[in-house]
Design brief:
Elements (H helix, E strand, L loop, with lengths): L2 H16 L6 H10 L4 H12 L12 H12 L21 H10 L3 H8 L10 H11 L3 H9 L24 H8 L3 H9 L3
Length: 196
């Protein structure tokens, strides 16, 4: 196998590991058993995955932005919903199928992870994209919306060696996530307007 093929295989394996929904002991051991030659790479990646994400934020002295932030902070999920009563549309998407879902939606995996972990204000997601996501996950749009309205998920690795119980991060607007992701204007336009 050439060095280029070996590097591509390594990247594919590490990518599949990074999009696993849980990075617990069993998942790590499974990947290490299948790919012992990448032990050091798995340890480095696991350290990155367990460290808190760094989100870029720009300070804005704008009353509308302050009001949107306040609304996001005080947003209450629809009455009568709890995590146990709403199915997760991303349950069947792990590893390579999660990567394929992101590619099919033409979005970055980090954006899809934020949606999976409910880090986005559901009301800020444009309807065309929400419908595309519902279609791609083969999940009814109404149930998808209910899932996204639930509180954000605390990452599984966040409690590792934590002194206190970790809290879920504050939700952000969808457009802010896109801006923080550094996508191009064309990618953003596709996300907001494309119905396919």
């Amino acid at each position: 196998m050439s060095t280029i093929d070996s590097d591509a295989q390594r990247e594919d394996i590490l990518l599949a590991f990074s999009v696993e929904p849980l990075h617990d002991k069993a998942t790590v051991e499974r990947y290490l058993a299948l790919n012992p030659q990448y032990t050091e790479d798995f340890i480095d990646l696991l350290g990155e995955l367990r460290s808190p994400p760094v989100l870029r934020s720009d300070v804005v002295d704008d009353e509308d932005a302050a009001q949107r932030a306040w609304n996001a902070l005080t947003a209450v999920p629809p009455q009568g919903l709890d995590s146990a009563s709403v199915a997760n549309p991303f349950d069947s998407f792990t590893g390579t199928s999660f990567v394929a879902l992101a590619e099919g939606l033409r979005i970055r995996r980090s954006i899809l992870i934020a949606l999976r972990d409910r880090l986005i204000n559901a009301s800020s997601i444009p309807a065309p994209f929400l419908n595309r996501l519902a279609h791609a996950t083969q999940f009814p749009a109404e149930k998808l919306r209910a899932y996204l309205h639930l509180p954000a998920i605390v990452p599984a690795g966040a409690s590792y060696k934590a002194n206190e119980k970790p809290a879920a991060p504050a939700k952000i607007d969808f457009e802010q996530l896109l801006d923080n992701s550094g996508i191009s204007a064309d990618e953003k336009r596709d996300i907001f307007t494309s119905t396919e």
